[in-house]
Specification:
The protein is mainly alpha-helical and 240 residues long. The chain contains eight helices and three strands; from the N terminus they run αααααααβαββ. The chain has two domains: 5-119, no CATH class; 134-239, Arc Repressor Mutant, subunit A, CATH 1.10.10.
């Protein structure tokens, strides 16, 4: 056998290897054949390995004892009870069950090793408070969050798509955020307060996007206050 003791994690690991090499069903092991293969392997251990093979030699004595019982069909319960403290493997079924149990644990160990190797591919950063990186002038004024404002914008867009008005106001030139801010200022100078949706009177994709960006920019610069009296209520914009 071209195998070494350091290839295994213990005697049960060696026994399981012999079962797999013999292509046996773990639930229907030929115990005598496996014992013979194990004892043959132990008999050929290099003398230099004896000091590191103590647990393998202990298993050898267990298997020799079991094999002797199998050869003489020993069924004397009194004698078996007397030997109970000396030997841990009591029968073929006992050895088979121990191997099955060991295989289950070994498979779990292989799974955990694979998970550990996969986990090493990731780096976990400890959570930290990012508030110190938030600029005050980027906070939306009033009691409406940026998420609520964006949702109102999307809802309004859906309503506009469904209405599909026959007449729309079309801009004669390309709008910039700077130009639209000037227009919104004039509107708020007259009305002081206006509904969020009223500012979207330019029914073009460019006009809607420019208006929304203008509102955000004015809020960032604290030119306007965005308020909402309650959940799902109308969002109002006021000049500061």
């Amino acid at each position: 056998m071209n195998i070494q003791l350091n290839d295994f994690e213990g005697p049960f690991d060696l026994l399981l290897h012999l079962v797999r090499v013999a292509k046996m069903d773990i639930y229907n092991i030929n115990i005598r054949e496996i014992i013979d293969q194990y004892l043959e392997f132990i008999a050929n251990i290099d003398e230099n390995d004896i000091d590191t093979a103590s647990e393998y030699l202990v298993m050898s004595s267990e298997l020799i004892h079991l094999k002797s019982k199998m050869l003489v069909n020993k069924n004397n319960e009194d004698e078996e009870n007397n030997e109970e403290d000396e030997y841990k493997i009591k029968s073929e079924e006992d050895l088979r069950n121990k191997l099955i149990e060991y295989e289950k644990y070994k498979n779990l160990t292989d799974t955990f090793k694979a998970l550990e190797e996969n986990r090493e591919l990731y780096y976990t950063k400890v959570p930290e408070n990012l508030n110190e990186y938030v600029e005050d002038n980027k906070v939306i004024n009033g009691n409406v969050s940026i998420d609520e404002l964006l949702q109102a914008f999307l809802d309004m867009q859906k309503r506009m798509d469904l209405k599909k008005p026959l007449t729309t106001k079309v801009a004669r030139r390309e709008y910039s955020v700077k130009d639209r801010i000037i227009e919104i200022r004039k509107i708020l100078d007259e009305k002081k307060q206006i509904e969020f949706t009223e500012l979207f009177d330019i029914i073009t994709k460019e006009g809607i996007v420019v208006t929304f960006l203008s509102i955000l920019d004015m809020s960032k610069n604290r030119e306007i206050t965005i308020k909402q009296s309650g959940v799902f209520s109308t969002i109002m914009i006021e000049r500061v």
